[in-house]
Amino acid sequence: MSNAAIDAAPEPRTRRRRRTREDVVERIRAAARELFAERGYAFATTKEIARLADVSETLLFRYYGDKATLFDEVVTAPFNRLMEDFVALHPDPRDPNRDADARRFVRAVYTLFEQNQEMFRALLFQMPADGRAQPALPFGGLDNFFEKSTTYAAQDGATRADTAIAVRLGFGMIASAVLFQPMLFPPHTDREALIAALEQMIADMMWRGRSD
After folding, report:
1. Is the pTM of this model over 0.85?
2. Alpha-carbon distance 169 to 84, whole Å?
3. Which carries the bigger pLDDT value, residue 155 or residue 33?
4. Do 106 and 195 form a contact (C-beta atoms < 8 A)?
5. Is 58 a member of any domain?
6. Chain-centre distance of CA 65, in angstroms?
7. Do residues 65 and 127 lie in contact, with contact meaning Cβ atoms separated by under 8 Å?
8. pLDDT score at 159
9. Is 4 part of any domain?
10. DSSP letters along the chain, please?
11. CA 154 to CA 57: how far, in whole Å?
């Protein structure tokens, strides 16, 4: 073969490494978080999420079924997993050694909001003034988190106000501390001091009066 023919021959294609299921799932989740943060739930399409993840829309549907299920996986499922892990570690809410891990749970929820604050802010702006989620914004997945948290907290023998309300208020305090931080706190507020204050306030609200 002449040198000219060799020069003209096409270069062999680089074969793309076969992706594992975990690779594909994480790419889809990351793309969904990015587009939900950029466009909100209503305007982020599965077609665009698939394109950003570099997968086919068919594959996205194979793993998640629809956009609402994908939303639940990246927005509400992490909170449910945190609660499940906590209950698995402390099945008895009256365990006197539970408090330190309960404080770590508060920190974990804070960190989850912190790591995804752009997405949560974008979603928050889609909430109407009356506070009800639009039909196209399926926050119902958080009901499971609140129900499990309430059921768990109600078993510890504490005497307090409505437990279900206390659980949601505690969650709201954490969310507000992250999402409204520029409005609520001066610049350079110490992160550790803020989390410590949340831990103490939520502990006082949730567990004061507990019968050990």
Report:
1. no
2. 20
3. 33
4. yes
5. no
6. 19
7. no
8. 47
9. no
10. --HHHHHHSPPPPPPPPPPPHHHHHHHHHHHHHHHHHHHHHHH--HHHHHHHHTS-HHHHHHHHSSHHHHHIIIIIHHHHHHHHHHHHH-S-TT-TTHHHHHHHHHHHHHHHHHHTHHHHHHHHTTS-TTSPPPTTS-TTHHHHHHHHHHHHHTTS----S-HHHHHHHHHHHHHHHHHTHHHHS-TT--HHHHHHHHHHHHHHHHHTT---
11. 43
Asked if the structure places residue 142 within a domain, the reply is yes
Entry field: residues in the chain: 212
Q: What is the pLDDT of residues 116-155, one digit of tens each?
A: 998 888 887 776 555 555 555 667 778 889 998 888 877 7
Structural domain contains residue 55: no
Asked if the model's pLDDT at residue 106 lies above 60, the reply is yes
Highest mean pLDDT (candidates 8-17, 94-103, 156-165, 178-187):
178-187
Q: pLDDT for 41-61, tens place per residue?
A: 888 999 999 999 999 999 999
CA 81: distance to chain centroid?
9
| The two structure tokens encoding residue 160 | 């307090």
**Residue listed under structure tokens 């309300």:** 165
Residue 202: domain span: 67-207
Handedness of CA 94, 98, 102, 108 (dihedral sign): negative
Number of domains in the chain: 1
